[in-house]
Task: inverse folding
């Protein structure tokens, strides 16, 4: 048997043994009442530090942005140079019990997945390019000890959502302040920027029109406030919030061609006539 044939035969045996371990783990998960992510216990007690163990502080659950490359990390301590002999670190997708990687080799035809490992590092990384909603689920990092050790990482692929409060139409009196609030939800990281458009043009905050400002607050959700003072009929139209990492959202603003003060004065102009009618009625009754 050639050296190449021996290596292929050995790899096939390792892959088969890992598949058996995965099937056993899959059965264990369905028969247990454990919860996702780090709440699963390892098959091997981690209190013993004489052999390999998982550093869970560096092997956490991941929330990924739809379509943006993400990385699942598994840090295995005390593995030493045993990997060069018989111990292997593998990644398995539990949705279909699919073996993805063994060591630094990728065992799937899906080219979005790739094994990454630096010989000087304890980290065994699963790279996923262009993650999709279907990639959401549990991924198992497995060490081929006896019994095998497993650490579970939950991947959640999300797509940010953009909302504008008060839509789809907003009516503003002439001379009032247009106050639009745009919220970006379900984003694992804040957008790098948010642009506002009026109709098809990007709003310039230092234009000759003046009175236009934007305030953006970043956190678990990102909120952008657009303020347009002294609204005029020419400020009517479609306003669009454009985050860098989410779909745009629009609202149509209608600026009414009447000042609020004029409307108030118009209402007060009817009051003297009402008082006159009441006075006449009282005189007649008297």
Result:
């Amino acid at each position: 048997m050639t050296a190449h044939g021996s290596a292929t035969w050995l790899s096939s045996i390792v892959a088969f043994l890992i598949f058996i371990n995965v099937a056993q783990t899959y059965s264990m998960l369905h028969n247990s009442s454990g919860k996702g992510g780090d709440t699963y216990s390892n098959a091997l007690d981690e209190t013993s530090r004489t052999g390999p163990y998982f550093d869970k502080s560096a092997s956490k659950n991941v929330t990924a942005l739809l379509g943006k490359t993400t990385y699942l990390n598994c840090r295995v301590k005390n593995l030493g140079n045993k990997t060069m002999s018989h111990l292997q670190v593998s990644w398995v997708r539990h949705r279909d019990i699919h073996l993805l990687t063994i060591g630094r080799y990728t065992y799937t035809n899906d080219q979005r997945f790739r094994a990454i490992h630096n010989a000087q590092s304890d980290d065994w990384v699963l790279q996923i390019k262009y993650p999709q909603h279907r990639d959401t689920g549990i991924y198992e990092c497995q060490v081929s000890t006896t019994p095998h050790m497993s650490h579970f990482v939950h991947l959640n692929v999300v797509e940010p959502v953009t909302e504008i409060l008060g839509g789809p139409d907003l009516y503003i009196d002439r001379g009032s302040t247009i106050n639009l609030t745009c919220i970006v939800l379900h984003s694992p990281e804040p957008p790098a920027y948010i642009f506002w458009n009026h109709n098809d043009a990007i709003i310039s905050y230092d234009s000759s029109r003046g009175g236009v400002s934007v305030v953006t607050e970043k956190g678990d959700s990102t909120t952008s406030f657009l303020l347009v003072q002294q609204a005029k009929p020419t400020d009517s139209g479609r306003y669009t919030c454009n985050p860098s990492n989410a779909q745009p959202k629009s609202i149509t603003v209608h600026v009414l061609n009447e000042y609020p003060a004029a409307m108030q004065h118009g209402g007060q102009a009817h009051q003297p006539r009402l008082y006159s009618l009441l006075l006449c009625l009282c005189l007649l009754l008297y």
Q: What stands out?
A: The helical segments are 3-31, 260-268, 271-285. The chain has two domains: 3-158, 161-261. Residues 25-46, 261-275 have pLDDT under 50 and may be disordered. DSSP finds three helices and 19 strands in the chain.
